[in-house]
Design a protein that fits this description.
The chain is α+β, with helices and mostly antiparallel strands. The chain is 44% helix and 22% strand. It folds into two domains: 143 residues, Jelly Rolls (Sandwich); 80 residues, Arc Repressor Mutant, subunit A (Orthogonal Bundle). The N and C termini lie far apart (38 Å). 38% of the residues are buried.
């Protein structure tokens, strides 16, 4: 029996997989391998062949678009609600951006070839992953609008709100260097934005630890992008 086969429908943890009918999940189960993805690890780089896909159970994974001179901006966040490897669902095999673990994550890993085989073996899995791919595309589109038209403070609010949703906690670790990387701005701009949110009583921020004190206040101070595609 493989490590993945020791899992059960009740303990799967990933919201996508938990929506599968029992019969299809049972068929998929032997191909799933529990793995721990450490903070800072780049799972995939832009242009890489996708040999494995991942269904996070905890933590947070970011999709980063990178310029030739090394500048980055986040175009998507993935937690236990989603999967890493959307191009495979759309019959592609190349990763268009960098995939980096922002918060240490437990995940279920599956070889791409096995996932494709299982998608062709049952209607529910393929339909479910296609719907998720559409949702992720909407989020990426909204992120592009947000990055172009909204202030750093508004974008910071959206980043915090989505992070809270993905990790299911009001408290999590995000350093200013990391936030600057995600937002594609200078670290000093993040310092100013964090200070403004803290002065308003919306967050508590110290040494890379963020506590969201007023989620509703963050939503009001932020832009519409979180509500639209968060």
């Amino acid at each position: 029996m493989t490590a993945g086969a020791q899992l059960s429908v009740q303990t799967v943890g990933n919201q996508l997989l938990s929506l599968l009918p029992g019969k299809e999940y049972t068929r998929l189960l032997p191909f799933l391998k529990p793995v721990r993805l450490m903070k800072g690890k780049a799972i995939l780089h832009a242009g890489d062949d996708i040999t494995h896909c991942y269904f996070p159970v905890s933590g947070m994974i970011s999709l980063l678009s990178t310029t030739e001179d090394g500048k980055t901006v986040e175009v998507g966040m993935i937690g236990s609600e989603g999967m890493v490897g959307i191009p495979v669902v759309l019959k592609g095999n190349k990763m268009p951006c960098e995939v980096t673990v922002q918060m240490t994550a437990d995940a279920l890993q599956i070889k791409t070839a096995n996932l494709v085989l299982q998608m062709h073996s049952g209607n529910a899995l393929e339909s479910l992953l296609l719907r998720y791919a559409h949702s992720a595309l909407c989020q990426t589109t909204q992120a592009a609008v947000c990055n172009r038209f909204h202030t750093i403070e508004q974008r910071f609010c959206r980043c915090l709100l989505i992070s809270q949703d993905r990790v299911k906690s009001n408290s999590f670790s995000l350093t200013q260097d990391l936030i600057a990387q995600l937002l594609g701005v200078a670290r000093c701009q993040v310092t100013i934005a964090a200070s403004a949110l803290q002065q308003k009583g919306l967050i508590y921020y110290r040494r890379g630890r963020i506590i969201i004190l007023d989620k509703r206040g963050l939503e009001k101070f932020g832009c519409e992008c979180y509500r639209t595609a968060g």
